[in-house]
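From the methods appendix. Each design record in this collection lists the tokenized structure first, followed by the designed amino acid sequence. Records were kept in a plain field format so they could be parsed without special tools. The example shown here is representative of the layout used throughout.

RECORD:
FOLD TOKENS (363 positions):
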């Protein structure tokens, strides 16, 4: 509101030097005094200023980023001509009304000759100036918003990375993993070696995503390998209580998504469905391509809960994933949760692909 008030105050003040210039022209070309010249200038400038308000409104709703450049250019040319014609009709009308009020009778006459040429040129230039200022301010606003989105996206990416690392490498997880490794070293050295390799793979994936900077897109194939390592290490602790079924077609495995998108969903199912239950729970991870989007669904048959408490009760990882997708894809993605007490928990994602799906990753 304050910004709009400042804009219109500057808009009004910007007409003052232009009006003074017209007043000087009227004063030099007639014997009228400065007062009369200023009045004539006002009758000429006020219609242009009021039409300019309409021009600002139209330009604010006619964005060049949403239209073809040729269409936008032709539309602006038409608007400039319309603005100029209306001004050259309203300015003489303003003079005519004043003369009528002064008792000089009704006399409506359009500008002619040099005056008409000047008014036509001035009208086109005024509209061009107004449109240029409006679109410059709009581009500046969009640039600031884009920068803010980029900063927020980077912050959320870093937060998600740290959250994922904490999920895998928190002291409790490490204690259980290392304790199990000590046992395996004595009883099954092959299994112990395999577990150590998986733990190292978790670190490599996290470091690789960090070193990629702002470009943290990975294929679903790479993300799933990361999740598989995480699940294998969690299975050392949970045993047969952790039951996972995956349905990931090759076409979906070649699609892209931000790193650390799938893991928090799986970690949430383990934390709230598998770990609390003596019998464990069954988890399913499915993927597919739907309307040029990667569709990911993580579902468990655990205790479920109240949807209103999901983000407030240990749902930080889910919140970060939701916010990252919203910031990254600007509303083009979808994050949907279905749950109820005793009915399990389901998270479904839709991630735009922009024709990036390319089959299973070969690396």
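DESIGN:
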């Amino acid at each position: 509101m304050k910004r709009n008030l400042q804009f219109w105050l500057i808009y009004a003040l910007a007409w003052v030097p232009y009006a003074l210039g017209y007043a000087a022209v009227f004063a030099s070309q007639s014997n009228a005094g400065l007062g009369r010249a200023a009045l004539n200038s006002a009758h000429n400038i006020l219609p242009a200023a009021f039409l300019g308000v309409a021009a600002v409104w139209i330009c604010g709703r006619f964005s060049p980023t949403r239209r073809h450049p040729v269409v936008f250019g032709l539309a602006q040319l038409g608007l400039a001509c319309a603005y100029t014609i209306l001004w050259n009709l309203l300015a003489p009308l303003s003079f005519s009304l004043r003369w009528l009020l002064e008792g000089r009778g009704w006399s409506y006459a359009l500008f002619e000759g040099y005056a008409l040429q000047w008014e036509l040129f001035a009208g086109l230039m005024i509209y061009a100036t107004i449109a240029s200022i409006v679109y410059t301010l709009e581009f500046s606003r969009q640039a600031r918003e884009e920068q803010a989105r980029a900063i927020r996206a980077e912050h959320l990416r870093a937060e998600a990375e740290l959250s994922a690392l904490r999920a895998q490498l928190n002291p409790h997880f490490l204690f259980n993993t290392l304790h199990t490794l000590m046992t395996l070293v004595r009883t099954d050295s092959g299994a112990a070696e395999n577990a150590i390799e998986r733990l190292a793979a978790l670190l490599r994936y996290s470091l690789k995503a960090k070193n990629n900077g702002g470009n943290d897109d990975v294929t679903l194939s790479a993300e799933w390998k990361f999740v598989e390592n995480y699940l294998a290490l969690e299975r050392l602790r949970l045993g047969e209580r952790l039951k996972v079924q995956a349905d990931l077609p090759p076409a979906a495995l070649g699609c892209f998504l931000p790193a650390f998108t799938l893991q928090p969903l799986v970690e949430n199912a383990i934390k709230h469905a598998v770990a609390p239950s003596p019998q464990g729970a069954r988890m399913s991870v499915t993927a597919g391509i739907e309307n040029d989007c990667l569709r990911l669904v993580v579902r468990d048959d655990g205790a479920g809960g109240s949807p209103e408490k999901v983000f407030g009760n240990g749902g930080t990882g889910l919140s970060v994933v939701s916010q990252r997708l919203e910031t990254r894809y600007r509303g083009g993605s979808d994050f949907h949760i279905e749950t109820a007490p005793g009915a399990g928990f389901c998270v479904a994602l839709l991630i735009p692909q922009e024709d990036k799906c390319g089959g299973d990753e070969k690396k």
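APPENDIX NOTE: The chain has two domains: 2-147, 170-352.
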